[in-house]
């Protein structure tokens, strides 16, 4: 399958996963929810890698690189993003995190020598602009989260949001040379996920209050955690690593960043209410940008 479609499949998995995560994340708290879904994803990935023999494709050097990538992208990046949400709210933090696609393109140029020209550059610009517009103006005023009115810690929140985006970009790009080898994408995802889970578990074991569950884990919440972990962390991250085997890292990051736009029609179906004008404008720009990229 072409890498463009693998990246879009990853974005679709993340969109579905985020739609199903709201209740579980509210019930458990962001850190506890992340810890539980990392555990589920890690167990699934380990089982799949054992089944297909993917562990045999790993070497000691690749494990070290995957561990570093997991620590930067999954642990530091996610932690910074949650901290940014606490200060800025989901909408503004989401806009800042969407810059990971821009960071990826810039870093891919300086690090890997990848360049964007012609209609691909135009398409990438439209796509990134569309994603940001959809996040920033995609909700009506009455639908804003209570955190949106919070103004404290603005500078710190912006810095944390940009840090999360940078970590996401760096952790993905550092794997590009590795994914060009015969390494198995599922086993690679398992190592990264294991790193993230162990570090999150360490925070919990050290007694940090933020890592505790708000409410006890129930059967229905556990089911949502399992579904989210399967979609977002098992399928989504494996699709991304597989896409890196065949495509430019900057393009993979750009196309996979459309998940906030893909969430909009899903929310429309669930809540039976048309998205705000900003969502339509953002979605249109994103679709146009994606078409220009894929047709090249």
Automatic annotation (TrEMBL):
The subcellular localization recorded is: Membrane
* Domain annotation EamA: ranges: 5-135, 156-294
- Name where it mostly resides: membrane
For membrane topology, the record states: Multi-pass membrane protein
- Per its UniProt entry, which superkingdom is the organism in? Bacteria
Q: Where are the transmembrane segments?
A: 34-51, 63-83, 95-112, 119-137, 157-175, 196-215, 221-244, 251-271, 277-294
What's in the keyword line of the UniProt record? Membrane, Transmembrane, Transmembrane helix
Family of this protein: Belongs to the EamA transporter family.
Family annotation (PANTHER family) = EAMA DOMAIN-CONTAINING PROTEIN, INNER MEMBRANE TRANSPORTER
Q: What is this protein called?
A: Membrane protein
């Amino acid at each position: 399958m072409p890498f463009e479609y693998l990246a879009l499949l990853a974005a679709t998995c993340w969109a579905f996963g985020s739609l199903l995560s709201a209740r579980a994340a509210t019930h458990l708290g962001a850190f506890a929810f992340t810890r539980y879904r990392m555990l589920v994803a890690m167990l699934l990935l380990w089982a799949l890698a054992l089944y297909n023999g993917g562990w045999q494709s790993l070497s000691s050097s690749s494990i070290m690189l995957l561990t570093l990538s997991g620590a930067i992208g999954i642990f530091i990046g996610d932690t910074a993003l949650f901290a940014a949400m606490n200060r800025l709210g989901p909408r503004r933090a989401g806009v800042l995190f969407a810059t990971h696609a821009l960071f990826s393109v810039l870093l891919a140029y300086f690090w890997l020598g990848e360049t964007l020209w012609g209609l691909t550059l135009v398409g990438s610009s439209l796509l990134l602009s569309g994603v940001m517009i959809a996040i920033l103006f995609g909700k009506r005023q009455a639908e804003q989260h209570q955190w949106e009115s919070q103004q404290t810690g603005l500078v710190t929140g912006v810095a944390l949001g940009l840090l999360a985006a940078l970590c996401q970009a760096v952790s993905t790009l550092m794997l590009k040379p590795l994914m060009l080898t015969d390494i198995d994408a599922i086993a690679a995802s398992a190592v990264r996920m294991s790193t993230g889970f162990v570090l999150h578990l360490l925070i919990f074991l050290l007694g940090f209050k933020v890592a505790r569950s708000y409410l006890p884990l129930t059967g229905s919440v556990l089911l949502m955690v399992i579904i989210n972990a399967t979609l977002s962390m098992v399928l989504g991250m494996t699709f991304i690593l597989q896409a890196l085997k065949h495509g430019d890292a900057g393009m993979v990051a750009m196309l996979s960043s459309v998940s906030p736009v893909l969430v909009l029609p899903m929310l429309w179906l669930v809540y039976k209410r048309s998205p705000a004008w900003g969502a339509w404008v953002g979605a249109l720009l994103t679709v146009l940008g994606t078409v220009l990229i894929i047709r090249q």
